[in-house]
């Protein structure tokens, strides 16, 4: 037996598929996990003085469309 919520979700998914979209599942790190922030800092320090990283960040700032961001 399907609930009204299940039916509504299925209708929405069907509409997205009809529009040419498809679902994709993405697994990302759990930012709530103990040690996550520490690992971010560790990795950031590894590339802090890397010339390629500096170039990449400068390029991103140049091409980023941040108009309207708060």
Polypeptide structure, described:
- The protein is mainly α and 70 residues long.
- It has a domain at 25-65.
- It has three helices and no strands.
- It has helices at residues 4-18, 36-47, 51-63.
- The model has no long low-confidence stretch (mean pLDDT 94).
Share of residues in helices: 55-70%
Q: What is the chain-wise order of helices and strands?
A: HHH
Largest sheet: none
**What overall geometry do the principal axes of the alpha carbons give?**
elongated
Summed up, what is this model?
This protein has 70 residues and is an all-alpha fold. 57% of the residues lie in helices and 0% in strands.
Keywords, separated by commas or semicolons:
single chain; 70 residues; mainly alpha
Strand-helix topology:
Layout: H1 4-18, H2 36-47, H3 51-63
